[in-house]
Amino acid sequence: MAEIQTSDATGLVLLLKAASFAAQKHKNQRRKDVDASPYINHPLSLAHILASEGGVSNPTVLAAALLHDTVEDTDTTFEELELEFGSEVASIVAEVTDDKSLDKAERKRLQIVKSSAKSHSAKLVKLADKISNLRDIAYSPPADWSSERRREYFDWAIKVVSGMRGTNAALEAAFDRECSGYPTTENEQRHSDERVIFRSTEFWFKIVGMLQHNWALIETQEIGVEVVFFDDLNCVFDRLDFRSTEEAEVALERNGFGRYDDDMQAQEFIAKPANPFSVDEYKMRPIYSGGEYWI
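Above: the chain sequence. Below: its structure as tokens.
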């Protein structure tokens, strides 16, 4: 078995030390999701996103990601970080730390206007932070956040990240994927004004995230049927043709859709869509396009 090289071992020690330090500092903190998950999950997710999705292997950047909230959200000081982890790690953390003496609106404004001026390392950490937060908000949001507040966060995150474009293509693509599947103001504006009326009233639905779901209708054609897919905003994003209603129903069931009228629990929490619908003028993501996932 090959031994770990000295440089690799030094980086590993730094990461383990940073993870242990962050876990100790955040030990009494919880995330705001319904499950009140341990706060340390968040900085760990940043390091994982950077390494596994962004291809970032620099231990200094990964350590800063693990420590990025210690000053902002605990009693840690920058002097303490510099003493424990060196000036480079402390400097990156300082770049991504908000000044809590300012009101929230000003802190959010400054994140937008200052994002382009940050160092490359700080931009990497900030990109991972936004990706992690978007995923948490989409799939396990704070219990008291309305859909409008979640939408506002996505809109704001897009503005922050716009100043960091060109930093890491893989991370930016991951960020864009999270945004493309969520009803942000930007996505709404991309929908065309064309409105359509569908004849079918038998709705199928599929849960795709916390309080997010896609819908489907089976529309009879002169030859065969067409399955029309649309999102929470009544915006059509895809269509697929099938030879018969039976074939379409089998495909929907195999791919996680269920009949809305057959699900009493769903009817208690999800309102049935109604005509008219908007026709999307572009493809946000080929979630179903081409029948790739359909049998």
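The beta strands are 191-196, 203-209, 212-220, 225-230, 235-242, 258-259, 277-280.
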